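Intended use. Records such as the Putative nuclease (SNase-like), OB-fold protein entry shown here are meant for training and evaluating sequence-to-structure methods. They are not intended to support clinical decisions.
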Amino acid sequence: MKGIDAPESSMPYGKEAKEELIRLVVGKSLKVLIFDEDRYGRCVGDIYCNGVFVQERMLKKGLVWHYGAYDKRPELEKWEKDARDKRIGLWASANPEKPWEWRKNRREQR
């Protein structure tokens, strides 16, 4: 999804993020707006489900990070900040590890 990055399954809140995404989209009609393709050939876009902007919902629930390096939309930054300020979801932890840093650390350990 464009503009967000979720914790990996083995990270804190990884399971919760996956479960919430499943709850939001499985078995429902989706509107997907493709903007780009990532370096792995995957489509990158916004997802809407029954009028709900999925990235917004995930950010507001504190289950994902705004991936500001790839998406500068201020509303995504604001939704993450609001969740951080309220200490919702993964923001209940003092210093949650960013998934892109977690993945990088795992690659370097190999």
